[in-house]
Specification:
It contains 18 helices and eleven strands. By secondary structure, it is α+β, with helices and mostly antiparallel strands. Helix 7 runs antiparallel to helix 10 and helix 9 packs antiparallel against helix 10. The protein starts with 6 loop residues before the first helix and ends with a helix.
């Protein structure tokens, strides 16, 4: 089975949810009109179908390996990277001054999702590079920008992010890597980092690492962390990759999935690096990259969901079982239809949330309007968590659609599940995203959430005249979500908020998904989108009610058992 990009969904959502007309009405994105966006999506879809999708299984069966200190990548991955680089897909949203296209993030997000569906193991490389590009654009010196950005945007060089250490996982403030001034404006970086995606490869001239480390006068915790750009090869006078830096890949991790993506343990032994941003302000600079990556990882989940859905649908249309009619295949069975409908409806909802977040990022960048900036920040943890959890759920359901053959590796159904499972862990686990949502994102007293809920209710009110059977449940769910939001904001004990954070996020995503399905149904009241919306709103939206009950339970029950009780 070959992957086909869902171009009609992308175009519909970019226009009707991300708000392309408003985005292109700004000076920053005025050239990204409907025809341009359509042409870009079509070309990206062809590249994903013809070049990247055939590599997915190759990478799974032929993992990257470490040979004599050099990472040897899966067969064909170098050609795949070359296609990504030559197509300009790395620098889609990057500054044109350095060779980027300057396109809206909504378009980049759609293309990244396509690449994730086709070959997630390889797509991680351009995603990490895009995040590094954005961090450098915002925080690096002019000299660093001039040297590194053109190479990263062109795909000649690739970028990584180095946060995690063996003793410092999600608690980044516990890291111990250090950076000593060399006296010439550079620094000697020493330490070990783990879980470094695409820490090395054999198809680009250089690998550029963004590394968090401490200066000698650093304060404890996150306030003492600085950010450094540490290349694998030191650029020479002409800007080309020169002699090797004093860093190396110690080993590659053996993983559940993503076998084609080398996950490296990196060792830095006085490696030469350059400070990015201000001393001791490394977390702020790194968060620029991490926020980009969180949206991108949400898209990875949605992309794998799409790939798993297409794979399962093709199998269901071909697998004959029993005496079902009219097709004579398992597609006629009600339970198989239920699974496929859930897969498709949830994938559409997650994609809509993803592109709504990307559209808000675009409007924030283009206008500087604080409300758009707050909207983008609020939607980011929802897009990341719901996107990745949808990918996991849909991929697992895809195995179930295949029945016993889903457990057999030769069908390829299991790979989607194995590959996507980590997306709910890296770039901030689902729990961390949820705590961010009810904590940092509600430091405004819930104003950003309230503005979004107002819009959903207003839209549902307008829809009552045309689709009352869909509009009413969306309005009711939104009102219940508003009440829970107000309850959370009123909680003085943050542990009570955190205890219900993930159910609250999932409920918010359910309501957002219903809202965007309603948008689609109104656009095509008699079409397939309306039929899918009816299924989502009647079958999946009601889950919000139980989730909101959990959200308001508080922390007492979670901590009622002692450590000894848990072990008994």
């Amino acid at each position: 089975m070959s992957y086909t990009a869902p171009l009609s969904d992308y175009e519909f959502l970019i226009h009707n949810v991300a708000g392309l007309s408003a985005i292109t009405a700004t000076d920053r994105f005025g050239d990204a009109d409907r025809d341009v966006v359509s042409a870009i999506l079509n070309e990206a879809g062809k590249m994903c179908r013809d070049v990247l999708e055939p590599l997915r299984r190759v990478g799974d069966l032929n993992p990257a390996v470490l040979e004599n200190g050099v990472v040897r990548t899966s067969p064909g991955f170098g050609d795949g990277w070359q296609a990504i680089a030559e197509g300009g897909w790395v620098g889609m949203s990057s500054n044109p001054e350095f060779g980027g296209m300057g396109l809206p993030m909504a378009v980049t997000t759609a293309v990244n999702e396509m690449m994730s569906a086709a070959c997630l193991s390889l797509q991680i490389a351009p995603l990490m590079t895009q995040g590094q590009i954005e961090a450098l654009e915002h925080h690096a010196s002019d000299d660093l920008k001039a040297l590194y950005l053109p190479k990263l945007i062109s795909g000649e060089w690739v970028g990584t992010m180095n946060l995690t250490e063996p003793q410092a996982g999600s608690d980044v403030g516990a890291l111990s890597s250090r950076a000593e001034p060399n006296g010439d404006g550079t620094y000697a970086v020493t330490g070990q980092k783990i879980f470094i995606s695409w820490g090395d490869n054999d198809f680009t001239d250089n690998v550029c690492h963004l590394v968090l480390a401490r200066l000698p006068d650093a304060a404890p915790g996150t306030k003492g962390i600085s950010l450094f750009l540490v290349p694998r090869n030191l650029p020479d006078e002409d800007g080309a990759a020169g002699v090797a830096n004093t860093l190396k890949v110690v080993s590659l991790e053996h993983k559940l999935g993503l076998h084609g993506s080398p996950t490296c343990v990196m060792q830095y032994d006085g490696a030469k690096g350059w400070l990015v941003g201000e001393p001791h302000k490394g977390m702020a600079a790194m968060f620029t990259m991490m926020n980009n990556a969180r949206l991108g990882v949400g898209g990875q989940g949605v992309g794998v969901a799409e790939g798993a859905y297409q794979h399962a649908l093709a199998y269901a249309k071909d697998r004959k079982q029993g005496r079902s009619a009219p097709t004579g295949t398992i597609l006629d069975h009600a339970d198989v239809r239920r699974m496929l409908m859930e897969m498709r409806a949830d994938t559409f909802a997650a994609r809509a949330i993803l592109l709504a977040c990307a559209g808000a990022i675009d409007m924030g960048h283009a206008t500087g309007d604080a409300n758009w900036v707050a909207r983008a920040a609020f939607l980011t943890p929802i897009a990341k968590t719901f996107g990745t959890e949808t990918g996991i759920r849909v991929a697992e359901t895809g195995v179930q659609v295949h029945g016993g053959m889903g457990f057999i590796e030769e069908t390829g159904a299991a790979q989607f599940y194995r590959d996507v499972r980590v997306t709910a862990i890296y770039e901030g686990t689902s729990g961390i995203q949820a705590m961010d949502l009810v904590g940092r994102k509600m430091m405004d007293g819930g104003e950003a959430a309230a503005r979004l809920l107002d819009e959903i209710e207003d839209h549902a009110e307008q829809a009552r005249a045309t689709l009352p059977e869909l509009a009413e449940p969306v309005w009711e769910a939104t009102e219940s979500l508003r009440e829970t939001t107000e309850w959370l904001v009123a909680q003085g004990d943050m542990n009570d908020r955190f205890a219900g954070a993930l159910p609250y996020l999932r409920a918010f995503a359910r309501v957002l998904g219903a809202h965007y399905h309603l948008v689609a149904a109104l656009a095509e009241p008699e079409g397939a989108r309306a039929k899918l919306a009816r299924f989502y709103i009647h079958a999946l939206l009601p889950q919000y009610s139980g989730l909101l009950v959990q959200a308001q339970n508080g922390a007492a029950d979670l901590f009622a058992l002692s450590a000894d009780d848990l072990a008994a």
